[in-house]
Write a structure and sequence with these properties.
homotetramer; about 280 residues; Alpha-Beta Plaits; Rossmann fold; seven-stranded mixed sheet; four-stranded antiparallel sheet; globular
């Protein structure tokens, strides 16, 4: 059985001695570093660091770690994210009618590829309830055609609180979350079925077909107020030709959507992503 | 020594019996088909066909072929393109200061990958004249800063006529050809350093870096009046990460620019491209 | 509703007039060709052709088609394969303990990507019976540890006959089919978890890790007597690095195994594959 | 003008406190770390570290650095490699008749992509002398057909010494270096025109064509006594189909050979490669 590890992500203004200071602090309490990766964004003047070390030899507890890091954060003007590898967070998946990303994510959870629980699935269509049942998730259907959007979003926000949801994954959820929703709950990953920033907005495969592109793409990104403008986590492409109709683009696209989205969720769960300046640094 | 072959491309309204009619005509004169590929664009109601057959057993000459095809074209409301595999057309390459696409194309010509001659290289900078010399091409430098654009373009058009140029390749030519130029000479392939339609226009790598994309692209396309909107021939991508600065994107981009452009030129020279409805069908 | 189409694959010694003869025969009976692709293997002296045309305007019935083609086959020394696009053949999937390829195939069947039925799933382990139930397939478990191999294979062959199976897909079936089995039933597609011919045989991911490769692959191929030597249909690769342990290779490999296998099965179902000289020509 | 940086690669048995110890040492002398990447190979029990920091604020000189690192190396049982980013080492390129890798490397040197000098080019054919001239390199032709291999190799080894060569790049050099040569000079990168370990040895494209693979590859690796068994640095692949003859494989292969080889040389020059246990860890 592998020992759980502590994962510390740091973002702060760059200055000499940062790696030394952080790793010496870890070393002084007996931590043995498993992974350590650092990046300086010269342009932004920022230092980014991700360090992972074993808990079993580490001599201070969670509370003490937290308290010590607060002091260091103050001194370095740093933002810390502290996580433990044995955390299994609750994730909510939002879907509409298409099932491929949903099934793919749930299958990867069951096979141990994605260390998360999916207690709830939320949809604006009743179609995929059967899949929720198969995977022991509660399915909440909101009729977004007849109900007021703000009412629906408030009910969803309540559910996210009730089920202690840490991340929302939009697995082909063909609805736009309002600014007010995102102000309340901002940890949201979306899969967009194009190679962003090409074909923002609706019907990207139809527009890609019309434009005659020779590659189509899929983009997993964090959701922000500006539609399809959020920080990009992962992008995949696949070749297409004149022999492919729009339906073929949609079919081929499903495979890269599944892969881009599941990779992005995995990177998020492993705390390998930094978000800053409207983009990501992915430490893989 | 391989026998030259005849390449017939046909575009006409779809109807039953087209493949039979064309191939029977070829067969009746003793032609042995080497390659034959047909596509029906159901949406456009168009039939596209490319047939390649040996000349050595074919019983009628170029003039007769031409005359017979005109009759068939009239009957089928078809557009024919007729080429011979032993044609070695004259191509003009337009460049600015970057040499990578130019050298790559010339190297492929010398190695026999691209069956074309490059008698002239045209530039708005004097920098690359030395390369022209190495490859026995005449180098024409036009000072686009001090000269009037229409004057320059008229001189270039004269050169294209004088040297019997069949295709212009914009190998990182950082100038926009005017509508009037394109009205006079329309067979132009450009390499754009992005995955079109993303990052149309100038400084695509800078904008890609700022947007934080995880893949960058290059697009070879025919040039039309609408900048970066011409029919796409070939697209390539390469992975990038947060560790790549703009300079790294530019460096990585050079490799995919060279490959996308040289593939597009090769497909053009082999008469494998159909252009219609602002896009291409590439028979490879 | 799309009209069904007739798909004719032809393999015969190359000679002039073949495309004309075939397409004229189709045209004479009112067939309108939707797709038509021809290839001459100069090395082997063979002509390969795949023609697809609509049934709705075709004036002769299946029996007459068959009878006429027999005459032409005799004349051309040709082998014909005749199929109809509305056929939905019965496929048997063989598995051991890993579920990813099985679930992926069944999901694609349910979503209409693969036009086939899966009445039976055969395994040397009881583990995946629950999945069979979910997708209404009968699950047959054979204890290959205690039972004699020839006994098991004979029972399997009986099942294949009973359920009118047209194709067997080995979706991570960690058993070798005997020569005698393959003599009785030869239409078998396997997924091998390496980039063949590298890492033939067992534990390819372990060996790839040990060798320190920078890409791993998956290969879908027809099964022949010689293990991992059958005609290759489809190959995919994915990047790996020193940070990937064997378990990561296995995880990353699952994604390319699923894609390579499902593409191969789809190409087979669409009658796009020719097998000759121990390799394939894939008309896509 | 960018300040030069110091690059320290460390390999030693893993134990707690290593990152801290190294980075504190750097920090104590005023070094500001630009890049820092660490990896623990759990299987081998080894710690690998690459740290890059600015020279301008670093308070001790090369001699002192060297002396201090020797003490640390003794304590940690570590192997250090110390380099400076402004070093421009002398590289020898070995070729036979094919010019594509040679030209590509020289072009990248001229464009500043590869920070190295190429004072000598060595060949067993006279063909490529003209290229050497273009790029101001001395060309040494050895007639390996009439001369004894050990005689030739000894002369080559003398040249490597005379020109202070740090790395040999086999850019399609169709000769095998003897064990005795490699014992004398071991820093050699080769490009093999297959996806190793598939198609080791001669004529890989012919064998790939015969096997009917759907992807071909190129592998850049360090050379060891066992032919094509050396540590792999970089691998690339490209799609092929039944329409590709052996000549097409060779043509397509040239593009991936150039890219795999130039990437490998660049990684080597940037000191991003660790070699151990017959494989590489590439920190990119």
């Amino acid at each position: 059985m592998e020992q759980p590890s502590i994962i510390l992500r740091t973002v702060c203004p760059d200055r000499p001695g940062l790696v030394s200071q952080l790793t010496t602090w870890i070393s002084n309490y007996g931590g043995n570093i498993k992974h350590s990766d650092h990046h300086t964004d010269q342009d932004a003047g920022l230092f980014l660091s991700r360090i992972e070390w074993n808990t079993n030899t580490f001599k201070i507890n969670k509370l003490e770690i937290h308290s010590e890091l607060q002091k260091i954060a103050f001194e370095l003007n740093a933002q810390f994210s502290l996580n433990y590898s044995d955390e299994v967070p609750n994730i909510a998946i939002f879907v509409s009618k298409q099932n491929h990303c949903l099934i793919d994510l749930l299958w990867r959870v069951r096979n141990g590829e994605l260390k998360m629980k999916v207690p709830i699935i939320i949809s604006n269509h009743p179609d995929l309830e059967i899949i929720a049942k198969d995977f022991n998730a509660e399915y909440f259907y909101f009729d977004t055609f007849s109900l007021d959007k703000s009412v629906v979003e408030n009910q969803i926000l309540s559910l996210l609180k009730k089920f202690d949801i840490k991340l929302v994954v939009l697995a082909k959820y063909m609805q736009i979350l309002s600014d007010s929703f995102l102000a309340d709950f901002s940890s949201v990953i979306n899969i967009h079925h194009s190679f962003l920033p090409a074909f923002k907005g609706s019907q990207p495969y139809h527009r890609a077909w019309k434009r005659g592109v020779k590659l189509i793409g899929a983009t997993a990104h964090y959701v922000t107020k500006d539609l399809d403008e959020g920080p990009i986590i992962e992008q995949c492409t696949v070749n297409v030709s004149h022999r492919d109709e729009v339906d073929d683009l949609i079919r081929k696209g499903r495979d890269i959507e599944r892969i881009a989205l599941s990779r992005a969720v995995r990177l998020h769960l492993n705390h390998q992503i930094f978000v800053y300046n409207s983009k990501t640094a992915v430490f893989d």
